[in-house]
Write a structure and sequence with these properties.
The chain has 446 residues and is an alpha/beta fold. Strands 1-2-4-3-5-12-6-11 form an 8-stranded mixed sheet, sandwiched between helices. It has a 4-stranded antiparallel sheet with strand order 17-16-15-22, with no helix packed on it. It has a two-stranded antiparallel ribbon with strand order 7-8.
Amino acid sequence: MSGLLSVFLHLLLLFKLAALVTFRHHHYDDLMRMLYKVHNECPYITRIYSIGRSVKGRHLYVLEFSDYPGIHEPLEPEVKYIGNMHGNEVLGRELLLQLSEFLCEEFRNGNQRITRLIEGTRIHILPSMNPDGYEVAAVQGPDSSGYLVGRNNANGVDLNRNFPDLNTYFYYNEKNGGPNHHLPLPDNWKSQVEPETQAVIQWIRSFNFVLSANLHGGAVVANYPYDKSLEHRVRGFRRTANTPTPDDKLFQKLAKVYSYAHGWMYQGWNCGDYFPDGITNGASWYSLSKGMQDFNYLHTNCFEITLELSCNKFPRQEELQREWLGNREALIQFLEQVHQGIKGMVLDENYNNLAGAVISISGINHDVTSGTYTVTASAPGFDPETVSVTVGPAEPKLVDFHLKRSVPQASPTRRVPNKGHGGRVFPKKVQPPATRKTKVEKKQPQ
C-alpha cells in the first residue's frame, strides 16, 4: 500500500511540474491570466501594473519582481525587458512569460541565485508592447506566408521607427558642440508618436532604468547602439557603417554576455547570416531611425540592447521549449550584469540627496568595467569631488560622494574697449568642453 502511495505522490508531483511549464502561444486574455497566475503564486515579490493602452484599448501590462514591489529602494537598480514590439515577432512575448513563471517558482523553491537577484534588483517585464499587432499575426499563425502581417500597431505604424529622433540632435551637437547625454524631448513629441510609444516613453521617464533589452525575431544576434548611421543618405537610404556610442566597449560586453550564455547565438552562423561572436553594432547591420534602443540611451542613459532571438518570427508551438532552454540562462545572466561597476549616493555635507548630480569618468566617459578609474561627482552650487576607484568583476563597488557647497568667488574679468557701453566691465564666460556623463536624478518612489 505504501508503495502505491509513493508512486501516486510521484505521479502527482510530475503532473504539477508539467502544469507549471506551459509551452504554448498566449493570446491577450491568456497573457493576462498568466501574469495574474504568477502574481497569485508569488504575491509578496510581484506587482502587476499598466503603463497605458494600445490603439484598440488593450492594456500594456508590466509584471514587476522585487522584495518590495512598488517601491524604489536606494542603491537597488531598475531593469526592464520588453517583448513583442513588432506584433508578429512573438518569441520574446512567450520567453518573458516563461521567465516570469521561472522567477516565481525558483524563488519559492529557495534558489539562492534567483532569490539574490530578486532581493537586490527591481525587475520590470513588459511581455507585449504591441498586443493589437499580435492578435492580427496570431490569426494567420506560424504557417502563413504573410511575413509582415501584424508587425505594425493598429494604425499601421512600426513602433520601432516611432520614437523621437534624438540621434539627429546628438550628431549635430557632436559636430557643433553641445550635450551628448540626457537629450530633451521635442516640445511636440506627443503629437508625433503612437499611444504605445507614448506609454513606453512616459514609463522610462518615470523609473531610473539602468539596463534594458528589447526582444525581437527574424534573426539570431545581440544588437547594440547606435542603430542610426552617421553616414549621409544615398538615394534616400543611409549607408551602413559602424556607429559606436561613447560606451561601445560596455555595450559589446553586454551583447556578448547574452550571446555566449545563449544556446547557439555565439556561434555566429544563424538564419543565413554571420555575426562574429553573435553580436553586431546596429548601424553596421542596417541603419534605423527613431528606434527605441538609441532613444533609451540618448534620453535617459539607460543601456538597452536589441535581442533578435529566432529565424522564424512566429515559431511553431512545439519549438517553444527548445527556445526557452536556449535563452533561459542568457536572460538571467543579462539581468545580473546590472550588478557590475560602481554604485553609490551623491550627498551634501548634511547627508541630503543632491538631485541632478552628474557622474563623469575620466578618459573613458562613463564606461565602467574592471580596472581603476578616476570618478568625479558634481552638482550645481557644490564643489566637485574626485576619487580613484578600482572595479572588479564581482559585486559592484560602493562609492558615496559628499559634496561641499561652493564658496562664491569673483569671476575673472576683462575690460571691453567699447565706449558705447560706458566702460562697464563684462565677465569672460568660459564654456567647458562637452563630455559624456551619467546624470543621477532623484525621482519619487513608484
